[in-house]
Amino acid sequence: MDAPYAIEMVNITKRFPGIIANDNITLQLKRGEIHALLGENGAGKSTLMSVLFGLYQAEEGVIKKDGKEVKINNPNDANDLGIGMVHQHFKLVQCFTVLQNIILGVETTKGGVLQMEEARKKVMSLSEKYGLQVDPDAKIEDITVGMQQRTEILKMLYRDNEILIFDEPTAVLTPQEIDELMEIMKNLRAEGKSILFITHKLNEIKAVADRVTVLRRGKYIGTVDVATTSKEEMSRMMVGRDVNMVVEKEPAHPGETILKVENMTVASKLHSNNAVKNVSFEVHEGEIVCIAGIDGNGQTELVYGLTGMEPLVDGKITLCGEDITKASIRQRSKYLSHIPEDRHKHGLVLDYPLEYNMVLQRYYQPEFTSKAGFLKRPAIRAYSERLEKEHDVRSGQGPITIARAMSGGNQQKAIIAREIDKDHKLLVAVQPTRGLDVGAIEGVHRNLIKERDNGRAVLLISLELEEVMNVPDRILVMYEGEIVGELDPKKTTVEELGLYMAGAKRNVGIDANTSEIEKTEVIDTAAEGKEEA
Questions:
Q1: For a tag on the chain, would you pick the N or C end, based on fewer CB atoms within 10 A?
Q2: What whole-number distance in Å separates Cα of residue 490 and Cα of residue 470?
Q3: Is 379 helix (H, G, I), strand (E, B) or coil?
């Protein structure tokens, strides 16, 4: 007789106003396997996992653990059953430290006093064992999105869960961190843990998953073995059509300088050193320039300085010939559109309906507000409906859907639609494809290239090596707050880019005449640089 499934979700149906998020879905997780859950944005993946974790209650269907039916009314019930979850949108208390967030809810006390040292030792031991380096005393509000992701993973490992749910865990990680996480997942599987892994990235599924279940628009499409199924077949199951994986574009024809940054210096919130140090560069109309680098090397602060979210310590910013160094965010938005890194913190008002989010930076314009100061609601609704249609933003109730109720990918698509539709000269796009499926990524890349071809300047900040190599016309590499190299994506290699990102390629070269042994030595040097960084 076959061993029972570690987790079995049978005929699960979950409804929300205006939408059936999960329509009669069955999912079976074997013990000691990595099982991927694949689907478009809004396909129902996170909802299904939220049902398993007790955040939602299904209207129909049952959940079984080790062959026995269980009732999971809340996350405490899930934790008691050994089920842990790393959420796509982190469940962290911003004003607490990393350590406080990890132990929250399972604190050790003696005589009513928190035993923090014991917890600290366990957290640091897990951190070292799994290569998830964190500063336990840093506040969540002060650390990068990548560090917050590590905190979420440590939170789950701290509880010794045996069923691990990873909801888009790599969406905010660097390529190096993704490789490390893939190894961590393999090690956890080897220890007998069972993993459910939600992702849009087919390469990651191929790298670690044993089987994959595909959902489309809330319905179950099928479960297949990863080893015997091609990426093309999986993407076809996911979006229902063939997806072009190659970024197609004509050569760029740069024109006038749109953005000129001179000797920019921005302070760090985490330490006394400056996060951005004396950086200078230009972006011209009709070109895409990408800032590449390992997360935490000053890219976030660079964008904050450009968009007016942080003041400069020193330097000058010129946009369309106008000095905007001390200009307000609204003044800058005359020329500048910004797709932010953190869509919840800086991109949306989560408790506003979608239609209001679509006009956040334009509501005061005559198109949307009368001379008497009243909002023109029919105009706002029509505008929102147009953007939703043009950019395939899916939501249960259309323009009146509360932004918080939308899937992460559709929230991202809404922000991209809003920012691209604004009248601007410069588009600053920070990780624009974060959390998007392959079909949506194809659309975003097409839109960025269209922006370029329409004579706009595009500044792309990306952690995705594939995106960095295929979308921009020029690459600027940041390391420890400085621009350490400018590369032509048509002439460089991923290895060379990696060396610059690790800070090991300021005086080192790899060219056609370099022997394989020498290349290995150089790349080993880069790896050492990454570890130190």
A1: N
A2: 8
A3: helix
- Report CA torsion sign: 362, 364, 369, 371: negative
Residues 533 and 523: their CA atoms lie apart, in Å, by: 15
Q: Report yes or no: 183 and 129 within 8 Å, Cβ to Cβ.
A: no
- How would DSSP label each residue in 85-137? EE-SS----TTSBHHHHHHTTS--EETTEE-HHHHHHHHHHHHHHHT----TT
Supply 387's token pair. Answer: 């953007």
Query: Contact at 8 Å (CB) between 399 and 375?
Result: no
Q: How far apart are CA 5 and CA 130, in angstroms?
A: 27
Rounded Cα distance, 360 and 293, in Å: 30
- pLDDT averaged over the chain? 87
pLDDT in tens, 184-199: 888 889 888 899 999 8
Alpha-carbon gap, residue 354 to 417, rounded angstroms = 12
Cβ-contact 161, 83 below 8 angstroms: yes
Name every residue whose Cβ is closer than 8 Å to that of residue 6 and which is 6 or more positions away in sequence: 29, 30, 31, 32, 65, 66, 162, 163, 194
Domains plus CATH for the chain?
7-239 (3.40.50.300), 252-335+424-490 (3.40.50.300), 344-422 (no CATH)
Q: At what angle do helices 145-158 and 116-130 cross, to 10 degrees?
A: 110
Question: Given pLDDT bands bounded at 50, 70 and 90, which one contains residue 508?
Answer: very low
CA distances from 296 to 347, 366, 386, 432 (A): 20, 40, 37, 17
For the record, the structure tokens of 389 come out as: 């249609």
d(CA 493, CA 474): 13
**Model pTM?**
0.69
Residue 517 scores a pLDDT above 50: no
* The pair of three-digit structure tokens given for residue 240, joined into one six-digit string: 């229902």
Kindly calculate the radius of gyration of the chain based on its CA atoms and give it in whole angstroms.
24
How far apart are the C-alpha atoms of 288 and 448, rounded to whole Å?
8
How do residues 470-492 score in pLDDT, each as one tens digit? 999 999 999 999 999 999 999 98
Identify the residue whose tokens are 């089920």.
83
> Which residues are CB-contacts of 52 (< 8 A; sequence separation ≥ 6)?
7, 9, 63, 72, 78, 83, 85, 165, 196
Interacting residues of 276 by C-beta distance below 8 A, sequence separation 6+: 264, 265, 266, 298, 301, 302, 305, 481
Non-local (6+) Cβ contacts of 150 within 8 A are 132, 133, 134
Q: How far apart are CA 305 and CA 445, in angstroms?
A: 25
Round to the nearest angstrom and report the end-to-end CA distance of the chain: 51
User: Where are the strands (E) in 190-331, listed by range?
Assistant: 194-198, 211-216, 219-225, 257-267, 274-284, 287-292, 314-319, 322-323
Cβ–Cβ < 8 Å for 102, 155: yes
